[in-house]
Amino acid sequence: MKIRHTLAATLAAALVGAAPAAQALDIVFDYSLDSTGFFTAAKRETLNQVASIFENNLTNSLAALTDVSFSTGLMAGYAGTALSVTDRDIAANTLVIYVGAVDLSSSTIGLAYVGTAVPNRTNTSDNGFFSGWGGQMLFDTTTSSGAARNWYFDNDIRSAETVSGTLDFATVAMHEMGHVFGLLHDGTVQGDNMFPTTNGTRNLFSVNDWLDMRTEGWAVASTTPDLNQVVVVSTPVPEPSAYALMLAGLAAVGLRARRRNTR
User: Fold this and answer.
1) Which of 70, 87, 157, 216 is the right S-S partner for 117, CB 3.0 to 4.6 Å?
2) What's the predicted TM-score (pTM) here?
3) Between β-strands 134-140 and 110-114, what pairing exists: parallel, antiparallel or unpaired?
4) Residues 14-69 pLDDT 10s
5) Which backbone phi and psi does 8 adopt, to 5 degrees?
6) What residues have CB less than 8 Å from 98, skipping those under 6 apart?
7) Who's near 27: CB < 8 A, 6+ residues apart?
8) Cα R_g (the chain), whole angstroms
9) CB distance 53 to 225 below 8 Å
């Protein structure tokens, strides 16, 4: 018992030491509108990695919100579930982004909407345009020809990627998240993330994109953030079906071990 207790304490201390430092800004994704299961564990991991770039590079302080109510907005005009929330509390320094995936019925591959609510956060530097509780994002599921939209994603968005015939999910996710933060399209430089079209490569936020964030009133620590701070889960998160297989495998191993002990 003493050995087990010591081992447990050691493991607990190691886990605490390995935990990432708390972020000043916390971006929370709400998947309650994902009725089709579009956001697999891999897609959620990509969103979390993109969010960690903003979390590590923005130093604004946001007040807590109590009993926030908001409804419709972006989801209302599409085949997805309409958004209606009543009396939700949002913690300080937290932004909530509702995400969904539907057939956008055009060449549009993503849409985003800045959240407005009562009560709401304000920002005097830009009349509160960027601020609020968060917002909504939609991703396209179907091409104009009716085929399933071919999204590309990997387990580490820090890697440079050139994709052909697919859409880089990390690039589009960062673009739409930029809209939630209040950015408009910037049609000046093709390589900027907020350029209105993609060019077949992975384009995360450029210096110009971060400068635009500053214009919107965000406190940007660096226009060239250290991507080594991106929080990457080294082991892919299993899908629900994988959990079932894993448990079945563990049960089989346990049964085999028991049979060996009885022999």
Assistant:
1) 70
2) 0.76
3) antiparallel
4) 433 444 444 479 999 999 888 788 999 999 999 999 999 999 999 988 888 888 88
5) -60, -40
6) 29, 30, 32, 33, 75, 83, 134, 135, 136, 137
7) 51, 54, 55, 94, 95, 97, 134, 177
8) 21
9) yes
